[in-house]
From TrEMBL:
Residues 22-404 form the Major facilitator superfamily (MFS) profile domain. InterPro entries: MFS (IPR011701), MFS_dom (IPR020846), MFS_Efflux_Transporters (IPR050189), MFS_trans_sf (IPR036259). Its main location: membrane. One of its GO terms (cellular component) is plasma membrane. It is found in: Cell membrane. GO terms for molecular function: transmembrane transporter activity. The keyword Oxidoreductase does not apply. It comes from the Archaea. It holds the Pfam family MFS_1. Keywords: Cell membrane, Membrane, Transmembrane, Transmembrane helix. The keyword Cell cycle does not apply. The chain crosses the membrane at residues 21-40, 60-79, 91-119, 176-198, 218-241, 261-281, 293-311, 317-338, 350-369, 381-399. This is MFS transporter.
């Protein structure tokens, strides 16, 4: 069977029994949630001029947005266990629209900070639930479903920042967020209509867990050897992504000598590659298992990171950028295994707790690479990231030996 047929056979079952519409609207919601987050830095030049802010202030605001998102993962998972996945996803999209409405009327630094904080909180609600719903409605295809959902986020990363920048140029910078509001509302309505309640799918997608577990009990049920190793793999993988994406454009301009517009195009191409890599990685996990799939995608990444430093011509840079896209493949592979390993009664809160930990760790990736770059060690930062990729490979060796 050729590779295309394998992919088709992995994807087609996702659309049976009405589940395709669930996957579609959940993916649209994630596209908007993630794409809007990357629209903020795209509009920073206009915001800086309009509000007379310096770059350090803008950087602090963006850190606030991501830190709020990271810290909101555990509460979001807990809320999902309490009120159900359907309500959590729906409320997240509707409340995100409200947060953008606040940003649409910003006229001061204080209001902008409030708006970005609110969007960090409301978008955090979406993270754990869009993963747990895939594991609830799909059995042996959860990896493919999660990969497709994550790929939709990469489409948002490619499209929304560029579209917001265009809208802001034609009108005012606030318009770069206002046009997204009706899209969030449409996604929310779609989720509310198609995501089933109670016993429509399996054991009930939207049945509230009515959990009264204490945090100590949740931690005890969540932290076992397999989950800790998978969380470490995710933490290192996300650190790699943050480290590379945070300064790849700057690296291409300052070290490789590309024009800023060309570097931006190559950077967008990296997310285009990610759009293809993530569903393929999820399907690969479903076909050959977690450990083998991780060895393939992280193995490619381990070889590619040093090659970035020796690529000199434009075709070589494009080639290594394609291979760099493999770094986006580890997440759907490890995340599917982690989600399925957690007890169903605390799956949302447990996953949220672990996501808070590895997102906070990963948020340091850009800072570490930026610090090395300031000291003239840009190339060396890629060797540091290579070491971390090798650590992921070592951790993957233990996966088949561990159980709950």
């Amino acid at each position: 069977m050729d590779p295309l047929s394998r992919v088709r056979n992995s994807v087609e079952p996702l659309w049976t029994d009405g589940r395709g519409w669930i996957l579609f609207f959940v993916s649209v919601g994630w596209l908007l949630t993630l794409g809007t987050r990357y629209a903020f830095p795209a509009l920073f030049p206009q915001i800086q001029t309009a509000l007379e802010l310096d770059l350090s202030t803008l950087g602090a605001l963006y850190t606030l947005l991501w830190a709020t998102y990271a810290l909101g993962q555990f509460p979001a998972g807990y809320v999902s266990d309490l009120i159900g996945i359907r309500r959590t996803l729906g409320y997240s999209t509707f409340l995100s629209a409200v947060a953008l409405l606040v940003i649409g009327f910003v006229s001061s630094l204080e209001l902008l900070a409030i708006g970005m904080f609110l969007f960090g909180v409301t978008s955090a609600l979406y993270g754990p639930s869009r993963i747990t719903i895939a594991t609830r409605i799909y059995d042996d295809r959860a990896g493919t479903a999660i990969g497709l959902t994550q790929a939709s986020g990469q489409i948002g990363n490619m499209t929304l920042p560029a579209l917001s920048g265009f809208v802001a140029t034609v009108f005012v910078w606030q318009a770069g967020f206002l046009y997204i509001i009706p899209l969030f509302v449409i996604a929310g309505v779609g989720i509310w209509v198609v995501v089933p309640s109670f016993d429509d799918v399996g054991d009930g997608v939207d049945e509230p867990a009515a959990s009264t577990d204490s945090i100590r009990e949740i931690v005890a049920a969540t932290c076992f050897p397999l989950s800790l190793v998978l969380t470490a793999i995710l933490a290192l993988s996300m650190f790699l992504i943050q480290g590379v994406t945070g300064f790849y454009t700057v690296y291409l301009v300052e070290v490789k000598g590309l024009a800023p517009t060309t570097a931006a195009t190559v950077f967008a191409f990296l997310f285009a590659v990610a759009t293809a890599v993530q569903p393929l990685a999820g399907a690969l996990k479903d076909q050959i298992g977690t450990r083998s799939a991780l060895f393939i995608v992280v193995g490619v990444l381990s070889v590619t990171l040093p090659l970035v430093t020796v690529a000199t011509t434009f075709p070589q840079i494009v080639f290594v950028t394609v291979l760099l896209g493999s770094m986006f493949g580890a997440s759907p592979i490890a995340l599917t295994r982690l989600t399925n390993a957690l007890p169903s009664e605390i799956r949302g809160s447990g996953l949220g707790l672990l996501r808070t930990g590895y997102f906070l760790f990963a948020s340091a990736g850009s800072f570490v690479v930026g610090t090395l770059a300031d000291r003239g060690l840009f190339d060396e930062s890629f060797f540091l990231l290579t070491i971390l990729a090798v650590v992921v490979l070592v951790l993957a060796l233990f996966l088949d030996r561990l159980s709950r």
